[in-house]
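Morning, I've got a small favour to ask if you have a moment. The fold is given in discrete form, as structure tokens running alongside the sequence. I'd be grateful if you could look everything over and explain what you see. No rush at all, and the record is pasted right below.
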Amino acid sequence: MQLFGADGRELAEAARFLETLGVDFIDINLGWSLGQGDPGRGGGGADAG
């Protein structure tokens, strides 16, 4: 299971919930580092333009 976000508290809450469902592996995706895309919108995805 992969979690994506920037709020550590929300990610921790989601991880605890997933643990109750029996998920045994959680990949935490924090997006792109600063200066690469827009981290508030999911990083540097493909340009639909």
About this structure: DSSP finds one helix and two strands in the chain. The radius of gyration is 13 Å. The mean pLDDT is 80.
